[in-house]
Amino acid sequence: MCNSRDDTTTKIDRDECCDANATERGNGGVPDDWLDGPDVLDAELPADLRASLGRFVGRASVDTLGEWAMHVRRITPGRSIAVEQLCHADAETEHWGTAGGERYHFQCFYDAVVLAAIEDHPVDVHTESPGGGVVEARAVGSESLSVSPESAVFSFGIANDARERSGGEPTLEDGYAAICPYVKAFPDYDAYERWADHVPAATVALPLSGATDVANALVG
C-alpha cells in the first residue's frame, strides 16, 4: 500500500513563490510555517501548502488541517482510518509503536499516534529524526501525548509533484506516497527548519505534544 521511497535528502531550489513563503516571518517574529495554539485544526496553513494540498485533491486550496482530514476520510474505505489501513512496514524501521505488548513498525512515525486514537489505549511511540536523535512519546487514546524531549515538533507536508501523482483524484495510496516522506519528528523547531529547507515539498511544523488533535480528526 505504501511507498517507502524517501526523497527528503534531495537538495532542490525552491521556486520564487515557495521560497518567499518559507522565509517570511509573521507577526511577532513567528515563522509562517509554525502552527501552535489550542485550535491547530482550524489554523490557516502556509500559502504554498494550501495550494499544494488543493491541487492534490482537485481544488483551488485546502486551508486547514481539519479540512485536510475531511478529504482523507473521504478517500478512505469506511470514511475513517482503520488499523489495517495504516502505513505498516514489512521489516523493522526506526518508526514504531508498542501497544498491548505488540510492536508495530511503520513507514511513517505518525501512524503510531493514529494507532492510539484508533485503539483508544496507550501506545509508546519511538522514532528517529532525519538529522539524528531519538524522539519518543506516549500517546493515550486521542486525548493525551507526552513527549521527550519536550521541545519536540513534527512536520506535515506534501510533495511538490503530488498533483502529477493523483491527477486531482487521489487514492489513499497516493496520499501515503505524497505525504509519508514529509511527516517526521524532530527534537526542536530549528532541526525541523534545517530539514525543511532541503526537501522537495511544502511543509509546516507543529508541537509534537499536539499531535493527537490531527490523529483524532483522521479517525473521525
Descriptors:
single chain, 220 residues, disordered N terminus, Bactericidal permeability-increasing protein, domain 1, 31% helix, three-stranded antiparallel β-sheet, alpha+beta, five-stranded antiparallel β-sheet, 8 helices
Overview of the structural elements:
The protein is α+β, with helices and mostly antiparallel strands. It has one domain (about 15-220): Bactericidal permeability-increasing protein, domain 1. It has 8 helices and 8 strands, in the order H-H-H-E-E-H-E-E-E-E-H-H-E-H-E-H. It has helices at about 15-25, 45-55, 65-75, 110-120, 160-165, 170-180, 190-195, 210-220, and strands at about 95-100, 100-105, 125-130, 135-140, 145-150, 155-160, 185, 200-205. The strands form 2 sheets. A 5-stranded antiparallel beta sheet has the order 2-1-3-4-5, with helices on one face. The chain has a 3-stranded antiparallel beta sheet with strand order 7-6-8. Strand 4 and strand 5 form a beta hairpin. Helix 3 packs parallel to helix 8 and helix 4 packs across helix 8 (about 210-220). The two termini are about 20 Å apart. Residues about 5-25 have low confidence and may be disordered.
